[in-house]
């Protein structure tokens, strides 16, 4: 196996496949190594796919990529134990010729994207785990060591796309372990139902989809969110909370999912379904503060391994696809210019990311994860207050409306105090800037 490549890509998820495809299409000799049985076999997502990140790689991907439904309606539900207060946005504009968001099943999509990389000329090896980076006497990364006999492979540059655990980078001393307060543990089930039942329950046509993002007391006082996404013939339902909150509260994630399934607003949507898959996975949710060094002598890091998830907008796959593509484009540019893959030259990748939405968005929300984590009232007190306010306002019981408004205002003041309310508003406004 002691062969030399232009580039080695570790991992065949969104970031790894985007990088491998871009490198191979430009004619580089690229080896991709994936520990799973096949690309996508180990990968978990909700999953909403953002089309523009795929279009930047493969403009006509819609012709044969495995896509479930295009999203025409987005709901945001804030739950207390018996109700939800929500917003819906549904638009006929999302029924466009080239829809903007799709639901997908990762095992199928990753396999398809990886095939495009193979067809472009990449060599892909599965069921092989990269253990660590190989370095020369100056510390420059010159290849990887895998869990195979004679498993040393060499390359000018290694593209690390090994996902949230990022063990290869950790073992090789180029990044730290993800802090427990910067990672969410998410659990997910697939609920199978006939297509017509899903269409009827969500008031949609055959290929149209609805996504529901869920906040509130269903996370049992921990910082986290739930989701419900419609696929063609299944519903993906999941919930994730910050790992250190799980540890502190001693709550079993599986119990949290049971609580979500039993909620009176969720149960009717999945009634009669057959559950066929259960998965658990980490999500890097520390935002910009969790981002490590992005490149060095002979290496770059992309996707979840680089902590590229915008938790505020539930985006991760697009940041992974984009960072993998941008890393590869800069490697191709260096290769074509005959320049070495030195730390100095690979900074091109960092600069390109700075100019892209990836780092711009993460920087915009840099204080949001910590602000929410330190102020649990946003996921406990406020959802309850909102539900009580809505119920009080809508119930027609002979109490005049002005009195109702005063009661609602009083309930907020009683729960948080005037200073607390102002302080909370300032905290959110600052973190959202
Ligand atoms: P991954 O997709 O995790 O891929 C990493 C790959 O590396 C895997 O194939 C793994 O097997 C391989 N690997 C790991 N270690 C090694 C090794 N040592 N050697 C060889 N191979 C290795 N994002 C969205 O945009 N929309 C959503 O709806 C959404 N929902 C989500 C719901 C859940 C429950 C979760 C967990 C995440 C969700 N995300 C979502 C985030 C999104 O899934 C990730 O941001 C995205 O998958 C990151 O892609 P990646 O390529 O960096 O990592």
Structure description:
The protein is an alpha/beta fold. It folds into 3 domains: 4-68 and 104-176 and 292-355, FAD/NAD(P)-binding domain, CATH 3.50.50.60; 181-284, D-Amino Acid Oxidase, Chain A, domain 2 (2-Layer Sandwich); 369-432. Helices cover 36% and strands 25% of the residues. The chain is built from 15 helices and 17 strands. It has helices at 14-25, 51-55, 106-119, 167-171, 195-202, 243-249, 253-262, 267-270, 317-336, 343-355, 357-364, 368-374, 381-394, 401-416, 418-432, and strands spanning 4-10, 30-33, 48-50, 69-79, 84-90, 101-103, 123-125, 130-135, 141-146, 152-160, 183-192, 208-216, 224-230, 234-242, 274-284, 295-296, 299-301. The strands form 2 sheets. Strands 3, 4, 5, 6, 11, 12, 13, 14 and 15 form a 9-stranded mixed sheet that branches. Strands 1, 2, 7, 8, 9, 10, 16 and 17 form an 8-stranded mixed sheet that branches. A hairpin with a 2-residue loop joins strand 16 and strand 17 (299-301). Helix 12 (368-374) packs antiparallel against helix 15 and helix 14 packs across helix 15. The longest helix has 20 residues, at 317-336. It is globular. The model has no long low-confidence stretch (mean pLDDT 95). The site of flavin-adenine dinucleotide (FAD) has 41 residues, from helix 1, helix 4, strand 11, strand 14 and strand 15.
């Amino acid at each position: 196996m002691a062969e030399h490549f232009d580039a080695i890509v570790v991992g065949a998820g969104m970031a790894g496949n985007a990088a491998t495809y871009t490198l191979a299409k430009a004619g580089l000799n690229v080896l991709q190594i994936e520990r799973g049985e096949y690309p996508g076999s180990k990968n978990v997502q909700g999953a909403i796919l953002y089309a523009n990140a795929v279009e930047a790689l493969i403009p006509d991907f819609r012709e044969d990529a495995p896509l479930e439904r295009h999203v025409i309606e987005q709901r945001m539900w804030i739950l207390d134990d018996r109700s939800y207060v929500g917003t819906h946005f549904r638009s006929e504009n999302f029924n466009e010729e080239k829809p903007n968001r799709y639901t997908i099943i990762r095992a199928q999509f990753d396999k398809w994207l990886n095939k495009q990389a193979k067809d472009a000329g990449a060599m892909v090896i599965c069921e092989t785990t990269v253990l660590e980076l190989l370095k020369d006497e100056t510390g420059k990364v010159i290849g990887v060591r895998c869990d195979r006999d004679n498993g040393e492979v060499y390359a000018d540059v290694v593209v690390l796309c090994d996902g949230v655990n990022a063990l290869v980078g950790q073992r090789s001393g180029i990044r730290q372990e993800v802090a427990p307060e910067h990672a969410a543990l998410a659990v997910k089930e697939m609920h199978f139902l006939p297509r017509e039942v899903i269409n009827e329950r969500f008031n949609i046509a055959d290929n149209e989809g609805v996504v529901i993002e869920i906040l509130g007391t269903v996370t049992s006082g921990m910082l986290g969110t739930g989701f419900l996404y419609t696929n063609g013939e299944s519903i993906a339902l999941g919930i994730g909370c910050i790992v250190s909150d799980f540890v502190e509260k001693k709550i079993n994630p599986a119990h949290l999912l049971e609580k979500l399934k039993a909620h009176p607003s969720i149960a009717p949507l999945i009634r009669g379904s057959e559950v066929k898959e259960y998965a658990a996975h980490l999500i890097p949710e520390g935002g910009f503060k969790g981002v490590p060094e992005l490149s060095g002598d002979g290496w770059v890091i992309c996707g979840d391994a680089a902590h590229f998830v915008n938790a505020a907008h539930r985006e991760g796959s697009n940041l992974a696809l984009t960072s993998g593509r941008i890393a590869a484009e800069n490697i191709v540019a260096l290769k074509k210019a005959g320049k070495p893959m030195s730390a100095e030259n690979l900074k091109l990748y960092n600069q390109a990311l700075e100019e892209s939405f990836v780092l711009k968005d993460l920087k915009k929300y840099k204080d949001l994860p910590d602000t929410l984590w330190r102020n649990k009232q946003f996921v406990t007190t406020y959802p309850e207050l909102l539900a009580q306010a809505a119920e009080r306002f809508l119930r027609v019981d002979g109490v005049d409306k002005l009195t109702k408004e005063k009661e609602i205002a009083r309930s907020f003041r009683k729960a948080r105090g005037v200073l607390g309310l102002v302080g909370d508003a300032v905290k959110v406004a600052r973190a959202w800037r």
